[in-house]
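Subject: mismatched residue count in predicted assembly?

I count 230 residues in my input, but I want to confirm that the predicted structure covers every chain. Input:
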Amino acid sequence: ETGVTQSPTHLIKTRGQQVTLRCSSQSGHNTVSWYQQALGQGPQFIFQYYREEENGRGNFPPRFSGLQFPNYSSELNVNALELDDSALYLCASNLGGTGPSTDTQYFGPGTRLTVL
Amino acid sequence: AQSVTQLDSQVPVFEEAPVELRCNYSSSVSVYLFWYVQYPNQGLQLLLKYLSGSTLVKGINGFEAEFNKSQTSFHLRKPSVHISDTAEYFCAVPRMDSSYKLIFGSGTRLLVRP
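Triage response: the counts match. Full output below for your records.
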């Protein structure tokens, strides 16, 4: 139990639709990161938010966007869904600002998105 | 640029046998290294991390890893595996701009047989 929850667990959408995935971080965790894990591959970094501001982005197009809220929840939005967007989407949270010797990143269980 | 290579996509092993999962990294800066485990239908769990100091790092569930700078490797080992260790294992290195923007390898599936 990491204290990081994600909803929904599974989701089916059709090509061209829009989707919002949600993540609830541990209380006090100012940093949330989102990853996409395609079947049979390792997770790929999408972007990170720190205190409600985007703090770095991976190689993903602008139709992937996010929000972070003061209550330690966050969203990943994907517009104009494509078949290749089918994947497990993971969020991860950590305190932020203290460094990896004293800070650990905790992952949620993920949302499985299927695009038909 | 940082990168991680996991050389084996699947490693079958019998219960109570030792196992080594291989990871090689490429990095031009100071290195942090991580191993994560993913059980079926679950998220990622941190097994262990190397930050600095002793090159032998001990983690949870009896796993350990050795940082070898000359060979740019960070192999994961366990002296005796259990059926419950069956899972996907990922090696990761941070991007240059943050310790928490991780670059993952493609994963190694550990399959423990009775």
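Chain B has a mean pLDDT of 92. Marking this ticket as 'not a bug'.
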